[in-house]
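As a warm-up, study this chain.
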Amino acid sequence: MSIIAARKDSAAAAKVAEEKQAPASAASPANTTTAQPASVNRPATRGQVDITNVRKSFGTTEVLKGVSLSVPPGGVAVIVGPSGSGKSTLLRTINHLEKVDGGYITIDGELVGYEVRGNKLHELREKDILKQRTHIGMVFQSFNLFPHLTALENVIEAPIVAQKRSKAEARKRGLELLDRVGLKDRADAYPRQLSGGQQQRVAIARALALDPKILLFDEPTSALDPELVNEVLDVIRELAKSGTTLIVVTHEMGFARDVADTVVFMDQGQIVESGTPQDIFANPREERTRSFFSKVIEPAFNI
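Now compare it with the structure written out below.
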């Protein structure tokens, strides 16, 4: 049996097992979810993400235990859960920063990190993986800006190197993106001359510079002082209206409520449940979800 067929059979078997174990009141298996786009008119035609029965271990520790998730073009999925639940690892498998041990991921039907040869999956060469990553923008917890480059130079570096755009074209686009995140007037500033929130907004502009199909955010505000959080979240809120598929890992529950089409709650390497913000915050099905939110959401938090 081919690896692809084996992985598909494994995913199907896991789904059947979950359906048998799920309570009758559950709307869907706990480990399988599809993000439902909000009633915002997003003219998205690309960026379909399908994660199928993905497993990942570090040594003897299984971090992802057969996770399945689908996000449609233009969808906004926000992943929440306690530290160590596998959220960031899942995000990193989407652009193959972490290799999966089982299952597979596709974007617009194309395998991420692998290709089929002889009816088997083989990992792509590094240059082909890097090419795939130009379609997958990622914003990290730390800003990861080049300290010796200005804000504009950080934004235009990848388009010039990876996409062979002319410097003039890249510069024009870079200034447009810095303007979009409210930093056109700081184009010539170096990272050390910018606040943390400003650096993260430059990082977002840099991720957008390659015109990605999807954008991944891994705790984009966790390294910021509290007063700087909103300036970054406001930029992401605007992106959520743009038609680009977003998958966001965050501890900012108010942001998840306001922006997400689907909120995904993870714990111990599994998707416990998912649904609309109204469903997850106001009426979670699972006791583990209720317990988590009772500790992280203020009593006055209302949908």
